[in-house]
Write a structure and sequence with these properties.
The complex is a heterodimer of chains A (347) and B (179). Chain A is built from twelve helices and 14 strands. With 347 residues, chain A is α/β, with parallel strands linked by helices. Chain A folds into two domains: 230 residues, 3-Layer(aba) Sandwich (Rossmann fold), CATH 3.40.50; 110 residues, Rossmann fold. In chain A, the strands form three sheets. In chain A, strands 3-2-4-5-7-6-12 form a seven-stranded mixed beta sheet, with helices on both faces. A five-stranded mixed beta sheet of chain A has the order 9-11-10-13-14, with helices on both faces. Chain B has one domain: Pyruvate-ferredoxin oxidoreductase, PFOR, domain III (Pyruvate-ferredoxin Oxidoreductase, domain 3), CATH 3.40.920.10. Chain B has six helices and six strands. Chain B has a six-stranded mixed beta sheet, sandwiched between helices. Chain B is globular and about 40 Å long. The relative contact order of chain B is 0.18. The chains are: A alpha/beta (347), B alpha/beta (179). At the A-B interface, helix 7, strand 8 and helix 9 of A face helix 1 and strand 2 of B.
């Protein structure tokens, strides 16, 4: 067995980025993701990289843009209110077709909200990570090991499709420790002939400004063709006891762990419950969910929000299953026991 | 032992998060699945701090510890809050040097341990957390002493060698306590 390390989710994300060859990290502290900054401030100098604590979240995302434009693997991280500030930079990166990885360790909102775990940035991440016609890749790990692995996947996909990728987790996943076995080798960075200083010509313009509408439309259409390819290829999910389930719970991230415990408890009582866990939120694994939901007939979406994923689930499921919702919000983490009650009520 | 869950709770600064980390490292070294979940935020500032540890042979679902097999309580409010959650037949260790009034415990076995006084007497002030962890190790067998020594060596930075020895001595002291 290769060596296992006990790491916080936040530390796993940071070490994975270092292992993936990221040498440019721009951050700003905010609970519950500050460990990422703390880790990077120690680790980056050891590997000849740059850790820079910017003057604000907006500065940090724009520094990420600058580093990415030169072809470097760059990362920034924050938590909900800080991510909101980054939306301008995210939109500019989409408009410049620049890859990067953005980590959002979600906390309660709106406004400053609270500091406890939340999933209330689902819409922000999947619908409007910035202004304009754009998309962002959104990955939703559920264990500390996955926090580690997903960083590799996110950097690679961001470079392949030339777009920002968000690792969407929450305070629970960021703060908890679990064993991590680092994967052997991260995928090598993609060739970036578009980058400043790379390929020919060495002098290029990377900009999101197109004053001729037809030209901008053309650029956006080309970009959406890439999005469409990402949509076909990247969606991922995991099923747990879903095959013969009569009630299918749909949950991502930390909430999926609690849903999994509720499913196990329901099965022990003889109730056929199952779990469908999206591992990507954009693209959303619609086909896979539709198939699983049609078999079960009843779906219960569980989130740490007022039900932001429900619309995606409804779009995927159509009229093949009834869709219900249970959520806690504001930083309250649902308990397996209260979920079990909901499942029993549905059976 | 297939599944074991533990809550360690007390004031911020008593080392409750560290004690939980040591327990989690034992499981890591034994090749088991383990999760460690801390309270974070305002609870840390002078108020109560706690962490929940789950140890299992199979992947851990919910890392929330809602029905612990064992509790280490290092102050009154923590004992009051978490004792009712301990599984029937479970174990609660309470630092009786700090908690003067022991509540009734109809379901869990509540063992008062004069942890803070004992470590002070032995010149090991500040590591009552480790004494209690040693006592827990003996009472529950969630790991073994050799693994615990190794775990502590992983948790304590090499530059704090004296702290490592202090921690190990406190665990051994707790392990040897009768009653």
């Amino acid at each position: 067995m290769s060596k296992r390390y006990l790491m916080k989710g936040n530390e796993a994300v940071a070490e994975a980025a270092v292992m993936a060859g990221c040498r440019h990290f721009f951050g700003y502290p905010i609970t519950p993701q500050t460990e990422i900054n703390a880790y990077m401030s120690k680790r980056m100098p050891q590997v000849g990289g740059i850790y820079l604590q910017a003057e604000s979240e907006i500065a940090a995302i724009n520094m990420t843009l600058g580093a990415s434009a030169t072809g470097a693997r760059a990362m920034t991280s924050s938590s909900s209110p800080g991510i909101a500030l980054k939306t301008e930079g995210i939109s500019y990166m989409c408009g410049c077709d620049l890859p990067c990885v953005i980590v959002n360790i979600q906390r309660g909102g709106p406004g400053l909200g609270g500091i406890q775990p939340s999933q209330a940035d689902y819409y922000l991440a999947t619908r409007a990570p910035g202004h304009g016609d754009l998309r962002m890749l959104v990955f939703a790990p559920a264990t500390v090991q996955e926090m580690f692995d997903t960083v590799f996947t996110a950097f690679d996909a961001a470079e392949l499709y030339r777009m920002p990728a968000m690792l969407l987790a929450d305070g629970l996943l960021g703060q908890m420790m679990e064993p991590v076995t680092p994967p052997a080798l991260p995928p090598a960075p993609r060739e970036k002939l578009w980058a400043l200083g790379a390929g020919a010509p060495k002098r290029k313009t990377i900009s999101s400004l197109y004053l001729k509408p037809e030209e901008l439309e053309e650029v956006i259409r080309l970009r959406f063709a890439r999005y469409s390819e990402a949509e076909t290829r990247l969606s991922a999910c995991e099923e747990y006891l879903a095959e013969d389930a009569r009630v299918l719970l749909v949950a991502y991230g930390a909430t999926s762990r609690i849903a999994r415990a509720a499913v196990t408890a329901a099965r022990e009582k003889g109730h056929k419950a199952g779990l469908f866990r999206p591992k990507t939120l954009w693209p959303f694994p619609k086909e896979q969910l539709r198939a699983a939901a049609a078999k079960a007939g009843k779906v219960l979406v569980v989130e740490m929000s007022m039900g932001q994923m429900v619309s995606d689930v409804r779009l995927a499921v159509g009229d093949t299953a009834a869709v219900g919702f249970f959520g806690r919000t504001g930083g309250v983490v649902p308990l397996p026991e209260e979920l079990l009650e909901r499942v029993e009520a549905l059976i | 032992m297939s599944d074991f869950s533990l809550i360690i709770a007390g004031f911020g600064g008593q080392g409750v998060l560290f004690a939980g980390k040591a327990a989690a490292y034992c499981a890591l070294l034994e090749g088991k699945e383990v999760s460690w979940l801390p309270s974070y935020g305002p609870e840390m500032r002078g108020g109560t701090a706690n962490c929940g540890v789950c140890i299992s042979d199979t992947p851990i679902g919910s890392p929330l510890v809602t029905r612990p097999h064992a509790l280490i309580a290092m102050n009154g409010p923590s004992l009051q809050k978490f004792l009712p959650l301990v599984m029937p037949g479970g174990l609660a260790l309470a630092d009786s040097s700090i908690i003067k009034q022991m509540p009734e415990s109809p379901r869990a076995r509540l063992v008062p341990v004069p942890a803070s006084d004992t470590v002070s007497r032995e010149g090991l002030g500040g590591v009552a957390n480790m004494l209690l962890l040693g006592k827990l190790l003996r009472e529950t067998g969630f790991s073994v002493m050799d693994t615990m020594r190794e775990a502590l060596a992983e948790c304590v930075p090499p530059r704090k060698k004296d702290m490592l020895e202090k921690n190990i001595r406190a665990v051994e002291l707790g392990f040897a306590l009768d009653g």
